[in-house]
Specification:
CATH architecture of the largest domain: Alpha-Beta Complex
CATH class of the largest domain: Alpha Beta
Number of domains: 2
Low-confidence stretches: none
Structural class: alpha/beta
Radius of gyration: 20 Å
Strand content: 25-35%
CATH superfamily of the largest domain: Medium-chain alcohol dehydrogenases, catalytic domain
Oligomer: single chain
Bound molecules: zinc ion
Length: about 350
């Protein structure tokens, strides 16, 4: 057992406070690494504030984790001390079920989430708002040298969450892709879709982020606060990827899907969204959701981002600002991802 510094919340309305947690000694196939940066994902806020159901307190969130390997177990073959590595939303799975065998461990019934889950040691898992973590090597990814650890951290969730459905639904040359919302997920999604070769549009509330959207690779920008915005966009997009965490009526957005195309949600609103099902009869659109990606696909995404110069746009903050940062994320006042400097934890 070793100890690590961390920041935790003790209840849904409590502020974060510094604390000390224990990390298990590395097992034969495990890797321990010193955390350098941890992104603040909207999921952290939904979970820590019990928006998705009661959390296990004290909670140490963080599933966008980047750092440097400090110690490896005796049978570790994939990593060595000093390697630059990252961990996303998953730290374990059964390895034998159908979902695990096809590389989609995120759907394993025995998946262990990086925090607020029960780990292999029987303890509640604690995430990246800490100074170190011990993880099974199969759930650790290598961060390419071309990516700084601070801008790579958010890719471990925001990157794979958007890369996986963009790839699955064929974002590429000749395809028109709309990204709904340009926050932490959306600003990465625009870059990835553009790097894949798709023609990218942003659908946002206002035009306040239009210049950024175009800089990230979008060629069109639509503001839904403008009257009649839907005119000219019905049936336009092969893929509409919604990154918005707010609850809303998605009927108008689904109307923008082209015949045979798809509306995919990755924003995971806390309560039910609204959709007039008759819209599907007239468009033939599919409506679905996507959940991060498997570990192999996460590594593929990191390599893709390094090759194409895709990185999160981050604001690095000290741990003492986590609570205030949460409030700003909820108000969409962050451009575009807060990343905690673990040396301040
Ligand atoms: Zn996340
Ligand atoms: Zn499994």
């Amino acid at each position: 057992m070793s100890t690590a510094r961390a920041w935790a919340m003790d209840g849904p309305e409590e502020p974060f406070h510094p604390t000390t947690i224990t990390r298990r000694e590395v097992g034969p196939t495990e890797v321990a690494f010193d955390i350098k940066y941890a992104g603040i994902c909207h999921s952290d806020i939904h979970t820590a504030r019990s928006g998705w159901g009661p959390a296990k307190y004290p909670i140490v969130p963080g599933h966008e984790i980047a750092g440097v390997v400090r110690e490896v177990g005796t049978d570790v073959t994939k990593f060595a001390v000093g390697d630059r590595v990252g961990v996303g939303c998953l730290v374990d799975a059964c390895g034998t079920c159908e979902q695990c065998r096809c590389g989609r461990e995120q759907f394993c019934k025995r998946a262990v989430w990086t925090y607020n889950s029960i780990g292999v040691d029987g303890e509640v898992t604690k995430g990246g708002y800490s100074t170190s973590i011990t993880v099974e090597q199969d759930f650790v990814c290598r961060i390419p040298d071309a990516l700084g650890l601070d801008v790579a951290a958010p890719l471990l969730c925001a990157g794979i969450t958007t890369y996986s459905p963009l790839k699955k639904w064929g974002a590429g040359p000749g395809k028109r892709v709309a990204i709904v919302g340009m926050g932490g997920l959306g600003h990465v999604a625009v870059q990835i879709a553009a790097a894949m070769g798709a023609e990218v549009s942003v659908i946002s509330q206002t035009r306040s982020k239009e210049a950024d959207g175009r800089r990230f690779g979008a060629s069109n920008y639509i503001a839904v606060s403008e009257d009649g915005w839907i005119k000219g966009h019905v049936g336009e997009f092969d893929l509409v990827l919604s990154t918005v965490a707010a609850d809303e009526d998605i009927t108008q957005l689904v109307r923008t899907v082209a015949f045979g195309g798809a509306f995919i949600d990755v924003g995971m609103p806390e309560t039910a969204s609204k959709l007039n099902l008759r819209t599907l009869c007239s468009t033939g659109a599919s409506v679905n959701a996507s959940l991060i990606g498997g570990i192999a696909e996460t590594q593929e995404m990191l390599d893709f981002c390094a090759e194409h110069g895709v990185a999160a746009q981050v604001e690095v903050i000290p741990a003492s600002e986590i609570t205030a940062a949460y409030d700003r994320v909820v108000k969409s006042a962050v451009r575009y991802r807060y990343v905690i400097d673990a040396s301040t934890i």
